[in-house]
Amino acid sequence: MKLFRQFILRPLINEKVRTITTVLGVSLGIAVVIAIQLTNASSVRGFEMALETVAGKTAIEIIGAGSGVDEALLPELSWLREFGIISPVIEGSAALVVGDVKQVSRRQMEAVKILGIDILRDQPFRDYQLLEIQQANGPTGQSASAEATAGRQANGTRDFNTQQFLEILTSEQTVVITEKLASRRHYPLGSTMRLMIGDRVLPFIVRGVLKNEGPARVLDGNFIMMDIAAAQLAFDRLGRVDRIDVLLPEGADVHRDLEAIAKRLPPPLSAQQPSRRSQQVETMLAAFHTNLTALSWIALIVGLFLVYNTVTISVVARREEIGTLRALGLSRNKVLLLFLGEAAALAVVGIAIGLGLARLLADAAVTMTASTVSTLYIAAVSAPPAMTISHLWIAIAIGLPLSLVAAAIPAVEASRVPPTAAMRGHDTLDMRVRFKPAALVAGFVFLVVALALAQLPPIGRRPVFGYMSSFAIVIGAAFMVPAIMYGLARLGRTTLRRRFGVEGLLAHANLTSAIPRLSISVAALSVSLAMMVAIAVMIGSFRDTVVYWVGQTLKADLFIGPGIRPTVGSEQTVSEDVIATLASHPQVAVMDRFRNVDLIFEGNLAVLGGGSYEVVLDHGGLLFKSPENARDEVRRAIGQDAVIISEPFATRYHKGVGDILPIPTPAGVLPFRVAAIYYDYASDRGVVIMDRATFAKYFGELPPTGVAAYLKPGADPEAVRAEMLDMLDEGHRAFIFSNQSLRGEILQVFDSTFAITYALELVAIAVAMLGVAGTLLTLVLERRRELSLLRLTGADRRQVRRMVIIEAALIGAVSQGIGLAVGFALSMVLIYVINVQSFGWTIQFHVPLAFLAQASIAVVIATSIAGIYPARRAAQLVLSHDE
Hints:
Helix content: 55-70%
Distance between the termini: 38 Å
Strand content: 15-25%
Number of strands: 22
Radius of gyration: 33 Å
């Protein structure tokens, strides 16, 4: 232990820059991996928390096909009481309206969850306690404590809490809000709050305040409760409820009762446990989470590369000391353990700092991904969960073994230093990598394996073989790096002599002689840069594809939608009053209503929509993938039991034109023929679209979730939009997007979706700088005698500095060049394998030349800057010799 402190820890403390850089690299890698895990957990945590607290003690829920449960079926379900207590529920989302509603954008809306209950039946299900109440005809401020409301009346026939609710939930405009919401938004008892539900702005009177328990904790207190009849009216769901909750007696067998209930339900209805909704959301988010996790490993590669460089520098700088220890009898195994101990020490400190940094990065990552998850998947996204002991063990299990692996090569090399190194002083370390033709063969074998793996199908919608193919490409490229460097060395000598004079010639000679040592560093650096290139090409290709798709698909002049964007589990609709008002504008030629509902297909969440095929064919611009005569097939499908499906749906469920889809409807599960498949980049959940007449036939005339307006020739969309907004009264607020503004919003959502990947690109640039600095420092220390001899041949310190900086720029340029080639190969796997298998999207390959050119220049400049410190060290060695 004393030897470890003297020989390992003391130099680490003295070499602060190198040690801090390495620890920072390891901690960053650990922090990003843990942060992404926390981010992934937060994506479903908010939904799960809302589900659990709102569901309360509900054991089984009865749901309908399409849009809730028809109230006409409730008398037929009286037998459910044989299993326990039942309670119908309305659940939806709204937005708080503060100030002038016409000046508020969708992004500024504060969402709230609304629960409509039958208080006479619901009390046993959910744990809510009244903190304050205002009786409908009593004085403002009459209150009851939480303890009092938990008591019972003297006659013992009715729960006092239930009585209080009955007294205040007597009006369709009465609501009960949470303690947090009342405090944050300053809503005293008796005050009026305005809620935007769909496209209507409705006033409600605050009659009660809930204690911060149970459902009141949903969405950080953004929870409102009202009578079920009032909720039906507010959400335009008269005649139906969202679901029926079933509370089983204590000790009941949930799975047995679930199976028994499911067998007795009429065809439109099905039974499930509330947790099933959470499982469906987790499945929906699985591909998104897997890709984020894969990206997070880039940062870990960075940390391992720095550990490798740090231990290498230690070995090179203390070669003579190692020889002395060997001469004094220290065994090879103990030398090996000393340097592995150095890697372990760096890893332990990095893990400790990384765990602390993970929380900060997780908060930033949640911010980056929140808009994506909220827009494309679910509305409830919470803060990252607290770190637990399991995260510590994960960090140790990842960071410590991989750091030891990264340090293994230089540690083994140190153990091979002979005792004569202390006496002769100029022994060099054994070359780690010698160019052998076998390396080329191995590289080609790995690339062939990568090609074969890319052909294999996914496992459970996860592109496992796609990731393995990417790994094989990286390994294959690493084997080929020495050959590439030897080839470039032969070609570049004359150019460097002509461009940079004698310093360029010396830099070329130094790097050529050090290729065996450099090849591992260049390979590691190239991998980091290759990931940056691959991600950039993938994002550029995806964005270019989306831009083209949007331009071809969005043909309507105006798009009319509700206040809150519909997501999983929420129904936001446009009212008939608004549609009639806007349709009366003289410049409107035709309006196409479309309605979306959540579809459970093969146990997963998808989207079922209804829209006019005729309007789409005559005015719209869906891009069809198949068949070749898709437009004719769709026209023949008008009013028929046929559907068109999105490409992600077809890919995920292996459906093609002519296949039959079993779709649950209020009339039971019915067969629908697939008439065509269209390209879609709006949702990876998968979309099934029926003709509007067919949809109405089976699901009824449901209010639309959106409306597309086609204007007459010559009409100015922006002017019509402004006039339409002026046509709406104070009680209505629709969001109207022009074609151009909607395209801008789609691209804004796209860019925010990939914000976290842009951040990871910066990591690649950073590691390029740190990696080159470490590599050059190793070479400088190894060549200190050669550098000192340069002084004898007339070289001054300025020339030495220039030579080392040229070496830094060359290492950066070669690494970026290899990174570009490997990155293009990885991007092909990302675009044509991983994205297709994860999301079902066909992306057209597009090279962002401007970005890659800028990035390449940035890498060369960054690595040149990183060479300044090693160059100064080299100049100091010349100076010390001169003195």
